[in-house]
Write a structure and sequence with these properties.
It is built from six helices and four strands; from the N terminus they run βαβααβααβα. It has 145 residues and is of the alpha/beta class. The chain has one domain: Rossmann fold. A four-stranded parallel β-sheet has the order 2-1-3-4, with helices on both faces. The longest helix is centred in the C-terminal third of the chain and has 20 residues. The chain starts with a strand and ends with a helix. It binds 4-nitrophenyl phosphate. Its EC number is 3.1.3.48.
């Protein structure tokens, strides 16, 4: 199973989602490949935001070796499921889809809600981690079936 997590910069939210879901899948002995990407190009090659690295580390998850990349059209055929953090990500990723099949792979990580962008608000990293962690737990149960 190949799962792609997507946000805007690929330095705050989607690196957390990648780290958390990969961690939970590994714990269960599942052979899943989790990756992440951004819709924007500002941070290509960059490390995850130190605030995301810190909050993940506090929960025993190391995301420090990830590097930011921008989503490509090929990702939409390559991955089985693509989870985006907010509605703007959704719009940008859907624009890359070249078939109804690819469009159907794209979903908000939290059905009917968004993971807020914590980039300009230090206080959001902890709640964002908690939201993503809770959702990844549910996702694991759902996708395992
Ligand atoms: P992310 O957060 O999409 O969760 O990685 C952001 C990171 C950087 C910027 C915006 C959001 N930025 O504007 O540089």
């Amino acid at each position: 199973m190949k799962i792609l997590m997507v946000c805007l910069g690929n330095i705050c939210r989607s690196p957390l989602a990648e780290g958390i879901l990969q961690h939970l899948a590994n714990e269960q002995g599942l052979d899943w490949q989790v990756d992440s990407a951004g819709t924007g190009n500002y941070h290509i090659g960059g490390k995850p935001d130190p605030r995301s690295v810190k909050v993940a580390k506090q929960h025993g998850i190391d995301i420090s070796r990830q590097r930011a990349r921008q989503i490509t059209r090929e990702d939409l055929s390559d991955f089985d499921h693509i989870y985006v953090m907010d509605k703007s990500n959704y719009k940008n990723v859907v624009a890359l889809a070249s078939s109804a099949d690819e469009k159907e792979k794209i979903k908000l990580l939290i059905t009917g809600d968004v993971v807020p962008d914590p980039y300009y608000d230090d206080a959001l990293f902890e709640p964002v981690f908690d939201m993503i962690y809770a959702e990844c737990g549910k996702l694991l149960t759902f996708l395992k079936k």
